[in-house]
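Q: Given only this backbone (178 positions), what sequence would you predict?
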């Protein structure tokens, strides 16, 4: 996001805050409900994936996804729902302790390539969910929240892809000749 984008976003938010601040509509609330539901599950799976990962750079990316993407987005969506007097979904997934080094036998754990592929797939699904919620947003402050996390998620996913390329974790795809 460029500096001008941030300035425009701030100006829009101020104007909308002065002019119009309605509760979330059904589409917006439904999108946030879905994001919270999937996000709670994703946090639980990311904790497990973190413990299976052996590569320190991969662990760092997973931890960053949890702390800087998933958890803040969940808090913002929950706050927006509460602000609209809507019920916030409650899920009781187990909290898994994060371990820097966990000795899981190789035949019983996911490889780093499998972990990276799994979290990459989860990230793409989350981004599609956020994009769908963004397209259903009528209120600027809600749409800008989704846009911010979509942009950050795409940047994070690019760094994961670069790590996968550098580590040789992407499958080789044969070239098609005509």
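A: Predicted residues:
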């Amino acid at each position: 996001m460029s500096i001008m984008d941030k300035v425009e976003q701030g100006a829009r938010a101020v104007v909308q805050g002065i002019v119009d601040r309605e509760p979330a509509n059904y589409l917006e609330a439904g999108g946030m409900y879905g994001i919270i539901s999937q996000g709670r599950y994703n946090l639980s799976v990311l904790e497990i994936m973190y413990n299976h990962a052996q590569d320190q750079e991969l662990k760092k990316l997973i931890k960053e996804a949890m702390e800087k993407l998933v958890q803040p987005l969940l808090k913002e969506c929950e706050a927006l729902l509460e602000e609209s007097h809507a019920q916030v979904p409650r899920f009781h997934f187990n909290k898994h302790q994060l371990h820097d080094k966990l000795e899981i036998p190789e035949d019983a754990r996911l490889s780093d390539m499998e972990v990276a592929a799994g979290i990459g797939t989860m990230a793409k699904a989350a981004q599609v969910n956020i994009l769908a919620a963004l397209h259903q947003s009528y209120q600027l402050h809600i749409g800008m929240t989704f846009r911010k996390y979509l942009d950050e998620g795409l940047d994070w996913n690019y760094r994961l892809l670069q790590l996968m390329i550098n580590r040789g974790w992407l499958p080789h795809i044969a070239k098609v000749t005509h």
